[in-house]
From TrEMBL:
Domain N-acetyltransferase: 4-149
Coiled-coil regions listed in the entry: none
Record-linked Pfam families: Acetyltransf_7
Record-linked InterPro entries: Acyl_CoA_acyltransferase (IPR016181), GNAT_dom (IPR000182)
Protein name: GNAT family N-acetyltransferase
Length: 153
């Protein structure tokens, strides 16, 4: 019998920003632009305990997946995949048709979640002009993309 993980997403509020920044720093992920407009970040809890953070930027019908961090004690336990599923569902509900991302360390994880490797130069203009593409992520980062299921809402 398969167990269902009941992970909960709460949009990050003022008092949680520093914990999120600390989590990003500990994972060597950029945090310089997380408070700019067009970004939505979540704290994920499991049984009332914070287990992860992550979010996305909105650029028309394209989204840029951002800053997925799972607490070390919860890694390799399905939390990352479930968190990604929740973020994708929220984004699809907001009209995002495709998610894009850059990663230096997790391309295998994202491939298992249905993301395809692409040439960085093939990113849509609104995505390639983001802070992530223009300098926050190194040129060696893998560019990946996935079409999101339509929201039947």
């Amino acid at each position: 019998m398969e167990t269902v993980m009941m992970i909960q997403a709460t949009e990050i509020a003022a008092g949680q920003w520093q914990r999120f920044r600390d989590a990003l720093k500990s994972a060597d992920l950029p945090s310089d632009d997380i408070d700019l407009p067009g970004r939505t970040f979540f704290e994920f809890t499991l049984d009332s305990e914070t287990v992860a953070w992550g979010g996305f930027e909105t650029h028309g019908t394209d989204g840029l997946l951002r800053s997925l961090v799972v607490e070390p004690a919860y890694r390799s336990k399905g939390v990352g995949a479930e968190m990604l599923r929740v973020i994708e569902a929220i984004a699809a509900g907001q009209g995002i048709a495709r998610f894009h991302l850059l990663t230096t360390t997790a391309s295998g994880f994202f491939e298992r979640q249905g993301y395809a490797l692409n040439q960085r130069g093939s990113a849509p203009p609104l995505i390639s002009q983001t802070e992530q593409f223009r300098g926050l992520c190194p040129g060696s980062a893998c560019y990946m993309c996935k079409a999101l299921p339509l929201d039947d809402g």
